[in-house]
Automatic annotation (TrEMBL):
Segments forming a coiled coil: none
Region of interest called Disordered, as start-end residue ranges on this chain: 205-237
Domain Response regulatory: 5-119
InterPro entries linked: CheY-like_superfamily, Sig_transdc_resp-reg_C-effctor, Sig_transdc_resp-reg_receiver, WalR-like
Protein name: Response regulator
Positions of modified residues (4-aspartylphosphate): D55
UniProtKB keywords: DNA-binding, Phosphoprotein
Organism name: Plantactinospora sonchi
Length: 237
C-alpha cells in the first residue's frame, strides 16, 4: 500500500485539527502540512504533498481559481472542498486544474476516497460536480452530440483512435470526423483544441464521462455520500 501525503488549506482551525486527527487513523494517508492560506502552505511545506485539500473560499479573500493555479503549477493535485456547491466556482476551479470538488457535508471516508482518486491522477466525480457541470450553460461550453462526446472521452482517456472507434462501435474514419467536429466546436466557443493533450484537458474541464453502452453518463453522481453516523468534513460550518 503506497502512502499518500496530504496537505490541507482551510482557515477553520477546528476543521484543520479534526482532519489532522482523523488522518492518523487512515493507514495510507499522511498529513504533510496544514495552513490557513495558500501562501502559508507554500512557505511551510518542505516537500509538495501528493494531494492538497483546498477550501474554496478563504478568509484572506484570495481567488479560488488563482489558488488552484498556484498549487497545480507546482505539481500538486488539488481537491477543492466547500460548504455549499457553488455552480460557477465548481466549474471554474476544475478548468483551472483541480481534480475534484466536494462539499463539506460529506463524511470523512468519502473525503478519503476522493483523495485516493485524485492521487491516482483521476477526477473525483461527485454529485456536486455533476450538478455544477449540468447547470453550466455559459456560451464557452460547446454542445456535443452523444457520439462526439463518446469518441472524445474514449480517445482522450489514452486510447488509440482505432480503439476508441471500436469502443464506440464505429469505424476509425468516422471517429476521426467526430474528433474534427469536436475540435471545431471548441474553437468556435473560444477554447482552441488541437492536440490529444488539449482534448484530455477539455474532458477534465467539462467533466465529461463515458456515456456509451454499459457506461455511466457524463453527469452521473459519484459513488460517495454521507454515511449515517459518520463524522462529516465540515461539521457545523
Amino acid at each position: 500500500m503506497s502512502l499518500i501525503s496530504v496537505s490541507v488549506v482551510d482557515d477553520d482551525r477546528m476543521l484543520l485539527d479534526g482532519v489532522a486527527a482523523w488522518l492518523e487513523s487512515a493507514p495510507d494517508l499522511r498529513l504533510n502540512c496544514a495552513a490557513p492560506t495558500v501562501d502559508r502552505l507554500l512557505a511551510a511545506e518542505r516537500q509538495p504533498a501528493d494531494v492538497v485539500v483546498l477550501d474554496l473560499l478563504l478568509a484572506d479573500g484570495s481567488a479560488p481559481v488563482d489558488n488552484v493555479h498556484r498549487l497545480v503549477s507546482t505539481g500538486r493535485a488539488v481537491l477543492v472542498v466547500s460548504v455549499v456547491p457553488h455552480v460557477v466556482h465548481g466549474v471554474d476551479v476544475m478548468r483551472a486544474g483541480a481534480s475534484g470538488y466536494l462539499t463539506k457535508d460529506h463524511d470523512l471516508p468519502t473525503l478519503a476516497d476522493a483523495i485516493r482518486t485524485v492521487a491516482r491522477g483521476e477526477i473525483a466525480h461527485s454529485p456536486e460536480l455533476a450538478f455544477a457541470w449540468s447547470s453550466d450553460t455559459r456560451p464557452d461550453r460547446p454542445r456535443l452530440a452523444p457520439q462526439e462526446r463518446a469518441v472524445l472521452v474514449a480517445y482522450a482517456s489514452g486510447m488509440t483512435l482505432t480503439a476508441a472507434a471500436r469502443k464506440v462501435g464505429i469505424q476509425p474514419a468516422t471517429a476521426r470526423r467526430y474528433l474534427d467536429r469536436v475540435k471545431a466546436k471548441y474553437h468556435d466557443v473560444g477554447r482552441p483544441t488541437y492536440t490529444k493533450l488539449d482534448l484530455a484537458d477539455r474532458v477534465r474541464e467539462d467533466g465529461l464521462r463515458w456515456s456509451g453502452p454499459g457506461g455511466s453518463g457524463p453527469d452521473g453522481p459519484g459513488s460517495g455520500g454521507s454515511g449515517a453516523g459518520s463524522p462529516t468534513l465540515g461539521g457545523q460550518t
